[in-house]
Structures are given as C-alpha cells and as structure tokens.
Amino acid sequence: MPAHSYAPAALSVVMLVVLSLAVWFDVRERRIPNTITALGVVAALVVRASMGSAALLAGAVGVGAGLLLGLLFFSAGAMGAGDGKLLATVGGILGFEAFLWCLPLIGGFGGVLVLVMTVRNGTILPTLARFRALLFHLVTFGRIGARGTLTAPGAATVPYGVAIAAGAATAWLGWGMTP
Length: 179
Known about the structure:
Blueprint: H1 7-29, H2 34-51, H3 53-75, H4 81-94, H5 96-121, H6 124-139, H7 160-175
C-alpha cells in the first residue's frame, strides 16, 4: 500500500474540521480565528507533501492564489481578513485547479447569502447603492465612486465564511481535489 493512500481521507477530515469551525465562529462572532486557517494550511500542505511534489505544488499554489484573492477583496473592503485567509486554506486543501473551479460556486453562494440577509434586514437598496459605488471605484481604479469598508456606517456585513464553506464543500463533492 502506498504511503499516501490515506491522503484523500486526511484532506477530507482537514476540510470538514476547518470549514465547520470557520462557519461556527463566523456566524457566532463574525470572525474566523487565525489559528483555524493557519493550522488548516499547515495540515493540508503536510498531507499533500506525503502525496508527492506535484500535489504539494498544487496545494502551495492554491494557498498563494487564495491569499492573493483574499488580499484583493480585503483591500477593496469587500471581505474580512479571516475570509481571505479561509480562501487560502481552501486553496491549499483543494489544490490550485480545483480551487479555481470552486470560486464561481463561492461567489454564487455569497450572492445568495447577501441577498437573503439584506432583504431580511431591510437594507437591500442601500447595499446595492454601496455595491454600485464600490464597483465603479474598482473599475476606474479609484477615480469614480467610493471605496467602501466593512466598518463604514450602514455597511451590511455577512458571515462570508458560510459562502466559502458551501462553495468549497460543493466543489469537493463535485470534482474532488487537484492531485
């Protein structure tokens, strides 16, 4: 039996533990502790290292892509830092190619989550107006519109870790990981 035959099961356990804890903390406290994401990345890369250099590289590139994407969204004021680090963890677990496949799913789940929460809170119109301003700000490289932040008065915050977990779990079940 090869030394890495346990790896898919181990990565599944890492995914389940990390996503469960991230969702629990994000819903309850609106934050995802660094301990969860950092240990998730380390565990994913250790397991991937046992699978060989190609699997380790796929995980490391997934971590990098997740960090870069999280940093972009965080710097735009569209996502919290914990959510960005959770993206990096998911990238490390899934590997780069599978991580790319899960991004539209995360976006779709996130859109539904934002829509449901803003309709429920009665803040849909102000949220859409802020989104429009942020979109113009991003597209015009800051020349038009306002750079919104999660701490701005009236900003709608959602536990986006829930959307990340839903998209990652759906991708994991649908496509698996990048070997």
